[in-house]
Amino acid sequence: MFDSISERFQGIFKDIRGMGKITDKNIQEPLREVRKALLEADVNYKVVKKFMASVKEKSLGEKVLTSITPGQKIVKIIYDEMVSLMDQEKGEIDIKSGFSSLMLVGLQGSGKTTTAGKLSSYFKKNDLSTMLVAADTKRLAARQQLKTIADQVGSDFFTIEDEVNPVLIINAAKETAQKKGIRRLIVDTAGRLHVENELMEELASIQKNLIPDEVLFVADATTGQDAVNICKEFNSFLTLSGIILTKMDGDARGGAAMSIAYTTGKTIKFVGIGEKLGDFEPFYPDRMASRILGMGDIVGLVEKAQSTFDEKTAIKMEEKFRKNEFDLNDFLQSLRQIKKMGPLEGLLKMIPGAANMGKLSIDEKEILHVEALMSSMTMEERMKPDVIDSSRKKRISHGAGRSVQELNSLLKRFLMMKKMMKNMGKFGKKFKMPAFPG
Prior knowledge:
438 residues, alpha/beta, Four Helix Bundle (Hemerythrin (Met), subunit A), Rossmann fold, 434 Repressor (Amino-terminal Domain), 3 domains, 8-stranded mixed β-sheet, 20 helices, 8 strands
């Protein structure tokens, strides 16, 4: 996510942080580079103009000029302005009140149907029952696709197969949902390849009849400035309450995220960050600014870990670490839990300072090979790797479809980790580590 612009900003920040003194003259070049980076990321030129004017004014302010670390102050100004840019209006989707309905709109291919499933999964995590309504009567197989997603999420599903009037489908769905005590109605509407009056009239009719609590515009983040322009078109016909950006894990240059809220005045409420139904999260301007600027997102990383790891299991693992009892069974279990958090390359980028490590590249296949080798071992062998002799090594490597050399490398690295853990345990007995606040 945002690899190109993040790298650009890290280079710019390196130059800015090195400035011992800020003047109107020497700040011009780095700010010019900031401007170029934003325009190349497909940020709206009017947004860039306002952003740069504000950054320059604050960079030459008295607090910066007299500061001991003026470079750091300017980096903070750029960060704060970017957060402000994407945080035009407060307001999250209510997850506590009674029945409510949500209507998803957007162009065909923006990811509305998948987003409907992701929203349902999000609500279910918050103990809210949902019903997915297939009101897209135009696209072939749209109803079946949503039905499949509803089955995957464990959500109720509603449509009327032979009905071509989406208003009739939605009214019937609303009545059914309220009778069943379902808390959230999520309506997937038809999209087009471009904005046209027929589409808008149909959507306006749906909104008028349903009176939804939320009308959410689903935008493909990889389309950059086009997503902003299309959103403005939809907003001129409909009363949009917010925006969902999809495909943020793809070739998103950041332009949509930085422009769409400011130019439309609408809140970005959620972002889709992967293909899986769980790859979906609320939008936080401060975290998004950190990712765009290559500063990581440690809060997001912790939340991913908390949602993946069972608390009791985590405490048990920590205890094993302390007592140096961590074996290959525990290692295999931890590896499988980490895989659930998503691609490791993406997780590393969420660590603050990771952008300074250069190009992050992890061979996910190697992780699979390690898992295959450990899965090929018996329970006893994972508990006591010392019993693995040459004949066992041949059996294990053959069963995993890997070489004995790879198995030897795995065992060697695990032994080194055990020694390191043992030393950490000795260190912990001598020096009591301070407790983390909170």
